[in-house]
Specification:
The complex is a heterodimer of chains A (about 500) and B (about 350). With about 500 residues, chain A is an alpha/beta fold. In chain A, about 30% of the residues lie in helices and about 25% in strands. In chain A, the strands form five sheets. A six-stranded mixed sheet of chain A has the order 6-7-8-3-9-10, sandwiched between helices. About 0% of the residues of chain A have low confidence. Classes of the chains: A alpha/beta (about 500), B mainly alpha (about 350).
């Protein structure tokens, strides 16, 4: 019997449809994965279920009765609990105190009584916590378990976990999975939001895949494979591959060896990545998001110091160089985060010269006429819909990206690093950015394209590398790449293990 | 039932200019009861507060005298804030400048003003810079929050001055803890005879003009603004974020130091413990009111100078407690700041 049924859910944000007629049902005693790329609409759907958003259309049934969920309070009343990616614990209170906050109880609190109660719940549900410890002394994994316990302590029968493993080290993942299995045995239902295939295949009973706000399908784990899920996540069976014209080997321009770096949580994000990109080719780095792509892009842009390995551009060692030095050496970067690439509150004209002010000033005084003229030129050439004195803040994503392209490509860089260059852009802007990257390739630049969009990689890249948990699973020519091979590599299989005798691969 | 919702939308630029004028009637409504309680006629009180200081030449000049250190502390704070360095220590840096002024005034015996005045300016600027150096280095090297360190150093220097004034620098002739009178060659000359308006006013206006030039017209100023508005993006554009912040912090300290020199060399002629009494903190308000724009800062400093003068005029002319003037002044400031925030919101029928 389904405990939750969501029927025909539609949610629109301005022009974007985040959820487009989605049906989703949850059985009692199952762990159900909600799988999809970033922006596929997973979190939106669950925020609707938990009352944080309100659906524009559709209805929700709990135990076959239609319900209206207007707020998390309503959701809790209906036995639904949620652990979001951002924890809401008070760091200076103990675990027990955090668990009692917001709950009805007697006016006078007995700390020992509370601790005993928490200990009892913790044992009953098989979720280990330390009731008397201060939350700020706990590891991220321990804090997460407190959140889970908090969500369950109000008699929840349904637990929603939003990307729970994103912040955990492997050992803590195991503890979490043990706890989830225990909950399943107790007859509770768990919705597990994730974009990581291996863990979905490990822990879940059924999997619902979303893509671009639409439902792709729901499958039982026993009836599917990681490769099939990868294909469901990223798109069509047949990619619209635009094969590149053949090119002659022209010698490596960008060489990366055994590159290591730490992620934002201090965990290793790159574990010895090595590749090279030749002049006039595009190397695509594919992979499911969160496998080190962000860090790779930031290291190559000089925004993150590598903890090991080497970066060479045209045989010049640039390991650990900052953004200015890299730009000097002929590296142009398109960062993943557009808002961190431009100063939102400065004008288009100012942003276009921010990295080359010495060329636009004499004796320290700005040459304002030339800055304006420069802006007019690039606005016309890149068809940016803005005037020179508009603040960047007012521009659409596509126009912002064009400003970034104009600034970086105007210096005809030898190496172009493009990290998720079309994420969140509309079709027109996406085509424009891609055509610009191909233009750079044709002109003889070495282009590294880091993208989670497999269509994009297959359409643009000459060779494709797949990154998984901070390591490359192999590099293969685009002509030899199939969705099956790439899908397997994206789940952590090395190229050699798939094809014992690798084809000619000049990587 | 009618429903309303509140939306955020940027206000037109002219709004900023008329807000101080709008704040006056609002403050009037809020403080009328207090004034009636003190047996004062509210209308008359407001006349003395805002109009009387400008109605006579003597008091109008006094407004400029009051504004002189405020122009400088406002400029100092605005400069640091523009680079995203939250310098709350203009008060302490002003004291450091005042100490330098008092010291130079003691040791430069019989100096020519042609040498003495430039040395005073240089000394004040350097002292303010040095006092700003410690928190700035802590910020860029160890990421120590500058709001805390600059603020706490303000108290430190007050005690340091107290030590000097009660010990080595104490003027034996005076019964108060104050330093000896500075040498005539280090005194800032008067701009208008028999008034208190001194050379420091010209310095302050020049500093603001220069600051406008640097922020709006130089490559360094653009880098500073980029760092202030988006550190990540600035770093991505190859700007040396830490070096830029450090420079902004030191120049800011230097400007605040100039305010201290001005008070010693133009007003008091010796160092006293209460030489600032919050001028540095007012600088934060002025920089915010002025939108970190040197022109706005100039207008805001004159506005604060006006109500500072007005607060004294009210109590003197109407025989009400001097604190009442302070209450009205504080209310006016709060209302003005509040309106600056509220101008970015619109109420719409939903």
């Amino acid at each position: 019997m389904p405990v939750i049924q969501m029927q025909g859910i539609v949610k629109r944000f301005a022009s974007l449809t985040a959820n487009n007629h989605i049906n989703f049902d949850l059985e009692q005693g199952e762990i159900h994965a909600l799988l999809g790329e970033n922006g596929a609409g997973k979190t939106t759907l669950m925020r609707i279920l938990y009352g944080l958003y309100h659906a524009d259309e559709g209805q929700i049934l709990v135990n076959n009765h239609p319900v209206t969920i207007r707020s998390p309070h309503d959701a809790i009343q209906n036995g639904i609990g949620m652990v979001t990616q951002h924890f809401t614990l008070v760091p200076t209170l103990t675990v027990a105190e955090n668990l009692t906050l917001g709950q009805a109880g007697s006016f006078i609190l007995n700390p020992l009584e509370i601790q005993r109660q928490v200990e009892k719940d913790s044992q009953r549900l098989g979720i280990p916590v330390k009731p008397a410890a201060l939350v700020r002394h706990l590891s991220v994994g321990e804090q997460q378990r407190v959140e889970v316990l908090k969500a369950l302590s109000r008699n929840a029968r349904v637990l929603i976990l939003d990307e729970p493993t994103a912040v955990l080290v492997p050992q803590e993942v195991e503890i979490l999975f043990d706890a989830l299995q225990r909950l399943r045995q107790e007859g509770l239902s768990v919705i597990f939001i994730s974009h990581k295939l291996p863990e979905v295949m490990t822990i879940c009973d059924r999997i619902t895949v979303l893509r671009d706000g639409a439902l792709v399908g729901t499958v039982a784990k026993s009836a599917t494979t990681a490769t099939e899920l990868a294909r469901m996540m990223v798109g069509r069976e047949n990619f619209g591959v635009a094969r590149q014209s053949e090119r002659q080997p022209a010698g490596p321009l960008l060489q990366v060896e055994a590159l290591q770096a730490q992620g934002s949580k201090g965990l290793p994000a790159l574990r010895g990545v090595g590749f090279m990109v030749e002049a006039g080719e595009i190397l695509g780095i594919a992979g499911v998001s969160g496998n080190g792509q962000t860090e790779l892009g930031r290291v190559l842009a000089g925004m993150l110091r590598p903890s090991g390995g080497h970066i060479r551009v045209d045989d010049k060692n640039l390991t650990g160089a900052g953004p200015a030095e890299l730009a000097q050496a002929g590296v142009g970067c398109i960062l993943e985060d557009r808002h961190a690439s431009l100063v939102d509150d400065m004008t288009v004209a100012e942003n276009l010269v921010l990295d080359q002010l010495d060329g636009f000033s004499r004796g320290g005084m700005l040459n304002r006429a030339r800055i304006l003229e420069n802006a007019r030129k690039w606005i016309a050439e890149y068809q940016i819909k803005a005037s020179p004195n508009d603040p960047i803040r007012q521009l659409s994503g596509g126009n912002m990206q064009k400003v970034i392209l104009a600034r970086n490509l105007s210096r005809t860089p030898k190496v172009v690093i493009a990290a998720q260059p079309t994420r969140g852009l509309d079709v027109g802007a996406t085509d424009y950015v891609r055509s610009k990257l191909l233009e750079q390739r044709a002109r003889g630049a070495a282009v590294l394209l880091i993208s989670e969009d497999l269509d994009e990689i297959m359409a643009l890249a000459d060779r494709i590398a797949v990154i998984y948990e901070g390591s490359l699973m192999g590099i293969l020519p685009a002509q030899a790449a199939t969705v099956e091979t790439l899908g397997l590599m994206m789940t952590g299989k090395t190229l050699e293990s798939i094809r014992p005798t690798p084809e000619a691969d000049h990587a | 039932m009618l429903k309303f919702k509140i939306e955020r939308a940027p206000a037109p630029a002219w709004m900023r200019a008329i807000i101080p004028l709008l704040a006056v009637p609002v403050t009037f409504l809020l403080t009328t009861l207090f004034l009636l309680w003190a047996d004062a006629n509210p209308l008359q009180a407001y006349y003395h507060f805002l109009i009387a200081p400008l109605s006579s030449r003597v008091s109008a000049i006094e407004v400029l005298v009051k504004a002189t250190p405020l122009l400088l502390t406002g400029a100092a704070v605005a400069f640091a804030f523009s680079a995203g360095y939250w310098n709350i220590g203009a008060e302490g840096q002003l004291y450091a400048g005042a100490m330098a002024g008092a010291w130079l005034g003691m040791i430069l015996k019989g100096v020519s003003p042609l040498l003495g005045i430039p040395l005073m300016l240089l000394g004040g600027f350097t002292a303010g810079m040095l006092w700003a150096l410690i928190p700035a280095l802590l910020k860029v090297r160890l990421k120590v929050d500058e709001v805390v360190t600059t603020l706490l150093l303000n108290s430190v220097i007050v005690f340091l001055i107290s030590f000097f004034l009660n010990g080595p620098w104490r003027d034996p002739i005076s019964m108060w803890p104050q330093s000896p009178e500075i040498d005539p060659g280090t005194i800032f000359f008067k701009l208008i005879p028999r008034s208190r308006l001194h050379f420091g006013f010209i310095v302050a206006v020049a500093v603001l003009a220069l600051e406008w030039l640097v922020l709006k017209r130089t490559a360094f100023g653009m880098r500073m603004r980029a760092v202030g508005l988006g550190k990540e993006a600035a770093r991505f554009a190859g700007i040396k974020v830490n070096r830029t912040m450090l420079t902004a912090a030191l120049v800011s300290g230097g400007i605040a130091g100039l305010a201290g020199v001005g008070e010693v060399a133009g007003i008091h002629f010796h160092l006293i413990e209460s030489i600032s009494d919050g001028l540095g903190y007012s600088g934060i308000i002025i920089a915010t009111l002025g939108g970190l724009n040197p022109i706005g800062v100039g207008l805001a400093a004159l506005f604060i100078g006006l109500i500072d003068t007005g607060a004294q005029t009210v109590s003197r002319a109407m025989n009400v407690p001097v604190y009442l003037g302070t209450v009205v002044q504080a209310t006016l400031l709060l209302v003005t700041l509040g309106l600056f925030v509220l101008q970015n919101y619109r109420i719409k029928r939903g």
